[in-house]
Design goal:
The protein has 371 residues and is α/β, with parallel strands linked by helices. It is 36% helix and 13% strand. The structure holds pyridoxal-5'-phosphate.
């Protein structure tokens, strides 16, 4: 059949010219290089992100899944656990609240949340986990780095306590991945969740999940999406079969721009190495703490330098007002209730430490004069 015969049989509507639409071609640089007719292809970018993240934590890419945020990932995992024989979950009262919410909402299913209490809001003695976990514990879920004190927990110790009772350990590593070296095997971690927003410098919209290889086959969440199907591109409507790898917990189309951004951040972390990032940020952190103590300010931080991470919390009154004044001086910090947070990273300098501390001192001095 010739083209004109084919057009007779399958009529093509008369061409409508849209010259204005063609001008948009300059917004898409790829069109100068390629005839691009695949407006949804970025699976390779996701695979790259999985690979890079796996390398950073010492895992296999098949043990890594992505999620839009930590809360979604946790919800999926929480839905996959069997609470019939083991109905309690142990957490620290200093953990980021979204962790506890996953199991607090399961109260009507008979799930009990047990919180180990911090004596000083800096840390939780690891022995408290041991006395709280029992043979009815499904999971110990806690952070490697506490978000309000920067304290680095001994995860291996807590993992051993959980495993001794037959429970799993899940680590919320949002405040650790990227700035503090980690090997998931050495720490004997079962599940780990983290986000690319903070120390991985990838911005919001992407979280990573690690699931230990041996645990993957038994994890079958009760929420699902087509990305978690074994034969995703077979589009089988009538049956659901889990993927054999960790990505079985993935749901729907990810925020692709976030995946690209995450890859940019992961590249930098890999290039520098987490070990060197840690060395540098610890130096900056210890210097900040020393400067703050020199001024007599309360610092909510671990006593032992090796337990500290790059979160320096100053106990100052009305911290949100100080943060605002600092913005006026082009100094960016943040606040939490009753605390001013300074979070330096490897790109900061000792001179910038002095700038921020001197500025706070001046603001406090002015406050005193004004009162
Ligand atoms: C320890 C910790 N976990 C989780 C989150 C964020 O969770 P999500 O990705 O669900 O917003 C944060 C945010 O600051 C955090 O500090």
């Amino acid at each position: 059949m010739t083209l004109s015969e084919s057009r007779m049989q399958y009529p093509v509507p008369a061409a409508i010219e849209h010259p204005d639409l063609v001008t948009y071609r300059s917004e898409f640089p790829i069109l100068q290089r390629k005839t691009y007719m695949n407006s949804c292809s970025w699976m390779g970018e996701i695979a790259k992100a999985r690979q890079k993240f796996a390398t950073i934590i010492g895992a296999d890419p098949g043990e890594v899944a992505i999620a839009p945020n930590v809360s979604t990932a946790l919800s999926s995992i929480a839905s996959a656990l069997d609470y019939s024989e083991r109905n309690n979950v142990v957490m620290a009262d200093m953990d980021f609240p979204t962790l506890a919410y996953q199991w607090l909402v399961k109260k009507r299913l008979g799930v009990e949340c047990r919180f180990v209490e911090s004596p000083d809001r800096v840390y939780v003695p690891p022995e408290l986990f041991e006395s709280t976990v029992d043979d009815r514990t499904a999971l110990v879920a806690t952070s490697r780095v506490f978000f309000t004190s920067g304290y680095i927990q001994d995860i291996r110790k807590i993992a051993d306590m959980a495993h001794k009772c037959g429970a799993y350990i899940l680590v919320d590593d949002y405040q650790g991945t990227g700035q503090i070296p980690l090997n998931v095997d050495a720490q004997d971690i079962d599940i780990l969740v983290t986000g690319s927003l903070k120390w991985l410098m990838g911005g919001p919209g992407l979280a990573f999940v690690y699931i230990r290889e041996g645990l993957i086959p038994s994890l079958e969440p009760t929420i699902a999406g087509w990305f978690g199907h074994r034969d995703q591109f077979q589009f089988k409507t009538r049956e659901f079969e889990f993927r054999p790898d960790a990505a079985r917990i993935e749901m729907g189309t990810p925020a692709t721009a976030a995946v690209y951004a995450a890859n940019g951040g992961l590249d930098i972390v890999q290039e520098i190495s987490v070990e060197r990032i840690c060395e540098r940020t610890r130096y900056l952190t210890n210097d900040l703490i020393a400067r703050a103590r020199e001024h007599g300010w309360g610092v909510r931080a671990p006593l032992e330098p090796e337990q500290r991470s790059s979160i320096v919390m100053l106990e100052l009154e009305r911290p949100e007002e100080i943060v605002k004044e600092l913005v006026g001086r082009n100094i960016i910090t943040d606040s939490r209730p009753g605390l001013l947070r300074i979070s330096p990273y490897f790109y900061n300098t000792i001179e910038e430490n002095a700038v921020v501390i001197d500025a706070i001192a001046e603001i406090l001095e002015n406050r005193e004069k004004g009162s």
